[in-house]
Structures are given as structure tokens and as C-alpha cells.
Amino acid sequence: QVQLQESGPGLVKPSQTLSLTCSVSGGSVISGGFYWNWIRQPAGKGLEWIGRIYISGDPDYNPSLKSRVTISMDMSKNQFSLKLTSVTAADTAVYFCAGEGVGPLEGWFDPWGQGTLVTVSS
Amino acid sequence: DIQMTQSPSTLSASVGDRVTITCRASQTINNWLAWYQQKPGKAPKLLINDASTLKSGVPSRFSGSRSETDFSLTISSLRPDDFATYYCQQYHTYPYTFGQGTKLEIK
Fold it and tell me: Which segments of chain A have a pLDDT < 50?
């Protein structure tokens, strides 16, 4: 059973880069069985899909964030990562990583990591 | 982007009640809709995919349906563990988008 765990700094200064990692256990990040996604949720608000990566092809990004987002994969560590540049207070949120199936299982998110709070503040 | 509009935003109900949450898509998404349950401080949990397919292990009191661009999540008889926030999500078109959530609270 695949499990996900986010990690990274909980505090980032405005204009700097937010960097988070999602560690995958119970499966391989290069198995081909999942797209690997990032999703965020500002406090008390709804969910926003950030983007996803697969073992092949280019990542897919939400156009609203595309100019600032990079999602990458580290096969040696069985992890995937999120970088968000030029952050502002509006980027303060709980960030989740999530798996998405492929083929007929594509589209919905399961499993999810527990989430990690990132606050943008000086 | 496809807009997903949930109603109501808040729903007060009692244990044993039958409740329905609605999600309307701004354009056709066929059956490409999922429902999630989220409790405070926790990640969302998948309940239903493809509008009406119950995830294995999810209680049968949960059900989903579709009428054109209107989708419904029904809980047939509320249990104490069901009080949470529920989100719909479309996966017909990028970017994937979520509804704003429906908070189900105890009356």
C-alpha cells in the first residue's frame, strides 16, 4: 500500500522559493502506476491543484501557477518535489502530495500525504 | 477553468438524517467527478470516483449520482463519524478543480 509523506521548511520569506519533498513508501515512484501530484489548501479554504509528474513526459501544471512552479522526481530517493518561486503571503497554505492512478484510474487522488503547513512571512 | 459550485456551504443535520450535497459543473464533465471527505487537520479521503463508484471500504450509506452537470452526494443515515467537510472535484479538463466545500455539522 503506497504511503506519502511531505517534508520541508514550514516558514519561507516573501520573494523566496518554497521547496517541498514527498517521500513515497510501499511502492516505487517510477513504477508507472501513479501520477504524482501536489495540491494546496489555504487555511479555512478549498483545495487547489498545483500540478503533477509522471515517469515519462513533461509535468502538467495549473496555468495559474505555471510560471512559478517546478515539479520533479528523484528516483534514487523515491521522492518527488515541488518548487514554487517568488512566494507571497497568498502562497501560505497546507501543501499535500497525492497519487493519481493511470489509465482508467486517472483523475482522482488517492492516496494523500498528511499535508504540511507552509507559512510565507518575513 | 471549469467551475465547481457546491451547495449548501454549510449543512446542519442530526445523526440518522438523510442528507444530500450538490455540486454543479460550469460545463459538461460527463461522469468525471470525485467526492472527498475531509476532517480538521487531516488530508481529504476519497469516497467516490466516476460520479457514483464507491471506493472499496467506504460505507454503503454513501452514494453518488449525476444529472447532466449536477452531481449529488447522499448519505442515507448520518453517523457521528460523518460530520466533516465534503469536496467535489472534476477531472474532465485541466486544470483539475474542486468545489468550495460543504461543511456538514451537527444540529
Answer: none
